[in-house]
Amino acid sequence: MKLIVAIVQDQDAERTIKALTDAGYRITRVASTGGFFSVGNTTLLAGVEDHRVGAVLGVLKETCERRTRLIPAGPNIVESAAMMGAFVEVEVGGATVFVLSVERFEQI
Ligand code: 2BA
After folding, report:
1. Which atom of ligand 1 is nearest to the CA of 33?
2. Ligand 1 atom closest to the CA of 32, numbered from 1
3. 76 lies in some domain
4. ∠ CA(13), CA(14), CA(16), 5° rounding?
5. How far apart are CA 62 and CA 19, in angstroms?
6. Pocket residues: Cβ below 6 A from ligand 1
7. What is the CATH number of the domain that holds 27?
8. DSSP characters over 69-104
9. φ and ψ at 96, to 5 degrees?
Protein backbone atom coordinates (compact mmCIF):
# COMPACT_ATOMS: atom_id res chain seq x y z
CA MET A 1 0.00 0.00 0.00
CA LYS A 2 1.07 3.59 -0.67
CA LEU A 3 0.11 6.89 0.87
CA ILE A 4 -0.12 9.60 -1.76
CA VAL A 5 0.37 13.11 -0.44
CA ALA A 6 -0.60 15.65 -3.09
CA ILE A 7 -0.36 19.41 -2.61
CA VAL A 8 -2.71 21.11 -5.04
CA GLN A 9 -3.87 24.65 -5.61
CA ASP A 10 -7.14 25.55 -3.90
CA GLN A 11 -8.72 26.32 -7.30
CA ASP A 12 -8.15 22.70 -8.36
CA ALA A 13 -9.11 21.02 -5.10
CA GLU A 14 -12.86 20.55 -5.60
CA ARG A 15 -12.71 18.97 -9.04
CA THR A 16 -9.70 16.85 -8.07
CA ILE A 17 -11.51 15.48 -5.01
CA LYS A 18 -14.66 14.88 -7.06
CA ALA A 19 -12.74 13.05 -9.78
CA LEU A 20 -10.94 10.88 -7.24
CA THR A 21 -13.99 10.07 -5.12
CA ASP A 22 -16.05 9.38 -8.27
CA ALA A 23 -13.34 6.91 -9.26
CA GLY A 24 -13.70 5.18 -5.89
CA TYR A 25 -10.69 6.53 -4.02
CA ARG A 26 -10.89 7.62 -0.41
CA ILE A 27 -9.49 11.06 0.19
CA THR A 28 -8.62 13.20 3.17
CA ARG A 29 -8.44 16.90 2.52
CA VAL A 30 -6.20 19.07 4.69
CA ALA A 31 -6.06 22.85 4.52
CA SER A 32 -2.42 23.83 4.14
CA THR A 33 -0.26 26.85 3.41
CA GLY A 34 2.74 27.07 1.12
CA GLY A 35 5.95 28.15 2.80
CA PHE A 36 7.10 30.31 -0.10
CA PHE A 37 3.96 32.29 -0.98
CA SER A 38 2.28 31.95 2.41
CA VAL A 39 -1.02 31.43 0.64
CA GLY A 40 -3.47 28.60 1.15
CA ASN A 41 -3.28 25.38 -0.77
CA THR A 42 -4.83 21.97 -0.25
CA THR A 43 -3.08 18.78 0.74
CA LEU A 44 -4.81 15.55 -0.26
CA LEU A 45 -4.06 12.23 1.40
CA ALA A 46 -5.00 9.02 -0.37
CA GLY A 47 -4.16 5.52 0.81
CA VAL A 48 -4.19 3.24 -2.23
CA GLU A 49 -3.07 -0.18 -3.36
CA ASP A 50 0.30 -0.08 -5.11
CA HIS A 51 -1.15 -0.82 -8.53
CA ARG A 52 -3.50 2.18 -8.32
CA VAL A 53 -0.81 4.83 -7.83
CA GLY A 54 -0.46 5.47 -11.56
CA ALA A 55 -4.21 5.96 -11.98
CA VAL A 56 -4.30 8.51 -9.15
CA LEU A 57 -1.38 10.39 -10.68
CA GLY A 58 -3.29 10.37 -13.97
CA VAL A 59 -6.30 12.03 -12.33
CA LEU A 60 -4.04 14.66 -10.75
CA LYS A 61 -2.48 15.40 -14.14
CA GLU A 62 -5.92 15.94 -15.63
CA THR A 63 -7.37 18.10 -12.87
CA CYS A 64 -4.46 20.18 -11.59
CA GLU A 65 -3.44 23.10 -13.75
CA ARG A 66 -0.07 24.75 -14.01
CA ARG A 67 -0.50 28.50 -13.43
CA THR A 68 1.73 31.50 -13.37
CA ARG A 69 1.62 33.93 -10.47
CA LEU A 70 3.19 37.31 -10.09
CA ILE A 71 5.22 37.64 -6.93
CA PRO A 72 7.31 40.52 -5.65
CA ALA A 73 10.92 40.31 -6.78
CA GLY A 74 13.70 40.28 -4.22
CA PRO A 75 14.86 38.15 -1.34
CA ASN A 76 12.23 39.32 1.14
CA ILE A 77 8.77 38.98 -0.31
CA VAL A 78 6.97 41.16 2.22
CA GLU A 79 9.38 44.09 2.13
CA SER A 80 9.89 44.04 -1.59
CA ALA A 81 6.14 43.92 -2.25
CA ALA A 82 5.61 47.19 -0.53
CA MET A 83 8.79 48.98 -1.44
CA MET A 84 9.92 47.93 -4.87
CA GLY A 85 6.84 47.27 -6.90
CA ALA A 86 8.84 44.86 -9.06
CA PHE A 87 7.29 41.50 -9.78
CA VAL A 88 8.45 38.25 -11.32
CA GLU A 89 6.37 35.46 -12.80
CA VAL A 90 6.54 32.12 -11.00
CA GLU A 91 4.99 28.87 -12.17
CA VAL A 92 2.89 26.99 -9.61
CA GLY A 93 1.48 23.48 -9.82
CA GLY A 94 -0.14 21.38 -11.22
CA ALA A 95 0.49 19.25 -8.11
CA THR A 96 3.39 18.42 -5.83
CA VAL A 97 3.16 14.72 -5.09
CA PHE A 98 4.90 12.44 -2.62
CA VAL A 99 4.31 8.67 -2.74
CA LEU A 100 5.16 6.97 0.55
CA SER A 101 5.27 3.26 1.36
CA VAL A 102 2.82 2.35 4.10
CA GLU A 103 4.23 -0.08 6.64
CA ARG A 104 0.87 -0.86 8.21
CA PHE A 105 -2.75 0.15 7.64
CA GLU A 106 -5.58 -0.44 10.07
CA GLN A 107 -9.05 0.93 10.54
CA ILE A 108 -10.10 0.47 14.14
P1 2BA B 1 4.79 27.43 -1.90
O2 2BA B 1 5.86 27.02 -0.97
O3 2BA B 1 3.99 28.62 -1.51
O4 2BA B 1 5.47 27.66 -3.33
C5 2BA B 1 4.74 28.24 -4.41
C6 2BA B 1 5.59 28.23 -5.67
O7 2BA B 1 6.72 29.09 -5.48
C8 2BA B 1 6.17 26.88 -6.04
O9 2BA B 1 5.24 26.14 -6.81
C10 2BA B 1 7.40 27.26 -6.83
O11 2BA B 1 7.07 27.60 -8.18
C12 2BA B 1 7.86 28.54 -6.14
N13 2BA B 1 8.89 28.28 -5.13
C14 2BA B 1 8.75 27.68 -3.94
N15 2BA B 1 9.91 27.66 -3.25
C16 2BA B 1 10.79 28.28 -4.03
C17 2BA B 1 12.18 28.61 -3.89
N18 2BA B 1 12.88 28.26 -2.79
N19 2BA B 1 12.80 29.28 -4.91
C20 2BA B 1 12.11 29.62 -6.01
N21 2BA B 1 10.80 29.37 -6.21
C22 2BA B 1 10.15 28.70 -5.24
P23 2BA B 1 5.21 24.55 -6.69
O24 2BA B 1 6.59 23.98 -6.83
O25 2BA B 1 4.18 24.07 -7.66
O26 2BA B 1 4.75 24.23 -5.21
C27 2BA B 1 3.42 24.47 -4.77
C28 2BA B 1 3.30 24.19 -3.29
O29 2BA B 1 3.62 22.82 -3.05
C30 2BA B 1 4.27 24.95 -2.41
O31 2BA B 1 3.75 26.24 -2.11
C32 2BA B 1 4.36 24.07 -1.17
O33 2BA B 1 3.20 24.25 -0.35
C34 2BA B 1 4.29 22.69 -1.79
N35 2BA B 1 5.61 22.11 -2.04
C36 2BA B 1 6.33 22.20 -3.18
N37 2BA B 1 7.48 21.52 -3.07
C38 2BA B 1 7.49 20.99 -1.84
C39 2BA B 1 8.40 20.18 -1.11
N40 2BA B 1 9.58 19.76 -1.66
N41 2BA B 1 8.09 19.83 0.15
C42 2BA B 1 6.93 20.23 0.71
N43 2BA B 1 6.02 20.98 0.09
C44 2BA B 1 6.29 21.37 -1.17
Report:
1. 33
2. 33
3. no
4. 65
5. 9
6. 7, 34-37, 41, 90-93, 96
7. 3.30.70.120
8. EEEE-SS-HHHHHHHT--EEEEEE-SEEEEEEE-S-
9. -100, 120
Tell me, what amino acid is at 96?
Answer: T
Q: Can you give the pLDDT of all 108 residues of the chain as single tens digits?
A: 999 999 999 999 999 999 999 999 999 999 999 998 888 999 999 999 999 999 999 999 999 999 998 877 766 655 555 556 678 888 999 999 999 999 999 999
Domain span including residue 17:
2-66+93-101
Residue 60 sits at φ, ψ, to 5 deg, of: -60, -40
The domain total for the chain is: 1
Residue 107 domain-assigned (yes or no): no
Residue 84 lies in a domain: no
Distance 36 CA to ligand 1 centre (A): 6
